[in-house]
Amino acid sequence: MILPIVAYGDPVLRKKATEIPQDYPNLDELIENMWETMEDASGVGLAAPQIGLPIRLFLVDTTPFSQDDELSEKEQKELDGFKKVFINAIILEEEGDEWAFNEGCLSIPNVREDVFRNEKITIKYYDADFNEYTETYDGLQARVIQHEYDHIEGILFTDHLTSLKKRLIKSRLNNISKGKVKVDYRMKFPELKGRR
């Protein structure tokens, strides 16, 4: 089932999400709905707060980036089919040089800005079957994970911008929270309660 994506301005996007137990009700169905919702909106990641649930769950699928001709063949191969569920994730380490990449967010449609992030992360998480992993990622895989991880910490990509950039996009962000934005996927706006 395709769920509405919560728009910028909703308080749920600012909450630090809580851990989820292994017996969380209907978890498989929730994850399936999140995959459907993300694919419908042409996203490469989706976190539970973006569908209104302040829980530590997000998923990523970097496959769309594998079509980018500016990437090396090795990078394209790494990104193709990289599809994972992250439950109760904790980033243990961020390292390497910070590098800029133009980011966007399904909760903040039609706003894209360069964001600086570390090139490499080590993350501990559980998969959908609650198997525990500690893994290291770099490049675009790391970036997408960092972006989604921020969501479960109550952080948005716009928080990483300079104060000047934030001032320049302020009116666009206000318009999003009021539903004054065109999108081709379902959204829930804080000031409109459920209007598409």
Considering the chains and any ligands shown, give keywords for the structure.
alpha+beta, 4 helices, 196 residues, 5-stranded antiparallel β-sheet, metal ion binding, 26% helix, peptide deformylase activity, Peptide Deformylase, two-stranded parallel sheet
Structure characterization notes:
This protein is of the alpha+beta class and 196 residues long. The protein has one domain (5-188): Alpha-Beta Complex (Peptide Deformylase). Helices cover 26% and strands 31% of the residues. The chain is built from 4 helices and 7 strands, in the order E-H-E-E-H-E-E-E-H-H-E. The strands form 2 sheets. Strands 2-3-4-5-6 form a 5-stranded antiparallel β-sheet. Strands 1-7 form a two-stranded parallel ribbon. Strand 4 and strand 5 form a beta hairpin. The mean pLDDT is 94.
Q: Total helix count?
A: 4
Low-confidence stretches: none
Question: Major sheet, described briefly?
Answer: 5 strands, antiparallel
- Alpha-carbon distance between the two ends: 16 Å
Question: What is the topology, as strand order, of the major beta sheet?
Answer: 2-3-4-5-6
Binding site for Fe cation: 105, 147, 151
Protein name: Peptide deformylase
Cofactor: Fe(2+)
Active site: 148
